[in-house]
Amino acid sequence: MKIFSSWSGGKECALATYKAISQGHEVLYLLNFISEDGQRSRSHGIKASVVALQAEAIGIPVIQVKTSWENYEENFKKAVGELKNKGIEGGVFGDIEVEEHREWVERVCSEVGIKAFLPLWGIKPEKLIEELLKLKFKAIIVATRLDENFLGKVLDKALIRQISKLGSHPCGENGEYHTFVTEGPIFKKALEVTRGESKKIDNIWFWDISTKVIARGKAPKQSQRGKSKIATLRSQ
Q: How far is it, in rounded angstroms, from Cα 208 to Cα 64?
């Protein structure tokens, strides 16, 4: 099935995309929502240009949609409707266990007339992290409510233990932290992260990063994968 991946740049969407490809689906687009000024991703606050470079390293075109939170659903449906007109039949999402998120995803996809795939749903957080690390995804913490010192750290079992000791969900499912993936089996190339300024906004620490492509990686094969490009859809 031809599908898109709901893309934040983090570990769950990367693993969900890997699973979709492994199951034989063709992930033809990454769908990423950004701020109205086009500067940063809505979900993790990462520079839109950094997400675009990440998509280039993966080798799947990214569609970056400008939107406010108030118009998010409207613009989501518009963007997915346009993808449906291009032959897209479904979307893959990295949700794990927040029922409200699942209900929203399944509802809006149904209303647009496509199928929603949630390959990570119901997997225990510890198993998910174990699989992520076994597949050699490299995920770096770029935003957190927990402690500024977590910024820039690469996710591993020891770090997950530290996070869990603070009472956090191991995967940060409740917004305790967010990651940016730089390497893994879906990447054709790897990314090197350059540290920028740390900022605290609304009790969340953000790590302002830059990236550059540094090496070739191994990606699972899928047919009809286009060259990486950026397509920006204007919000209403």
A: 19
Give the three-class secondary structure for 234.
coil
Separation between Cα atoms, residue 51 and residue 65, nearest integer Å: 12
108: Cβ contacts below 8 Å, ≥ 6 apart: 73, 76, 77, 80
Average pLDDT rounded to a whole number, residues 8-30: 96
- Which residues are registered as beta bridge partners of 198? 207
Q: Which pair of tokens denotes residue 184? A: 């893994």
CA distances in angstroms from 66 to 33, 43, 102, 154, listed in the order given:
6, 12, 23, 29
pLDDT over threshold 70, residue 232: no
Q: First and final CA of the chain: distance in angstroms?
A: 30
Q: From CA 173, how far away is CA 30, in angstroms rounded?
A: 21
Does residue 3 have a pLDDT over 70? yes
* 198 CB neighbour count, 10 Å cutoff: 12
